[in-house]
Design brief:
The protein has 123 residues and is α+β, with helices and mostly antiparallel strands. The chain has 3 helices and 3 strands, in the order H-H-E-E-E-H.
């Protein structure tokens, strides 16, 4: 009688994690968005907007003229005034003047701050 070969346990194919394949940016952005969605669902205070209550969480809103466009959190402050948190999500960023991406994000942030001051001089 021939011996039956023992069945080997199933081994799924090895899949490289997104971070090692170079396309982890959108994955990380989704995790940050999910973090703020949890604040919305739990009606809890979102990080970066103390005392506020989240009303909406939006992703990728550059078409709506949000220069920091990856995650946009619209909220209401405790006094009833509107609050907005714009987040540019990056896995890595060099904080140097020679880094063109960092310079671009700084410029976008400064433009956004100036626009807010024009709308509300008290800022």
């Amino acid at each position: 009688m021939a011996k039956k070969k023992a069945k080997e346990p199933y081994k799924p194919p090895a899949i490289a994690p997104p971070a090692s394949t170079g396309n982890a940016g959108p994955y990380f952005e989704a995790k940050v968005g999910a973090f703020y969605l949890l604040s919305l669902l739990a009606a809890s205070e979102p990080r970066g907007l103390p005392g506020a209550t989240v009303r909406t969480v939006e992703l990728q809103r550059r078409v709506d003229e949000h220069p920091l466009d990856d995650v946009i959190v619209q909220a209401i402050n405790a006094d009833g005034s509107p609050a907005t948190l714009e987040i540019q999500v990056k896995r890595s960023l060099k904080f140097t003047a020679s880094d063109l991406e960092f310079r671009g994000r700084c410029r976008a942030n400064c433009r956004r701050r100036e626009e807010a001051r024009v709308q509300n001089p008290a800022l």
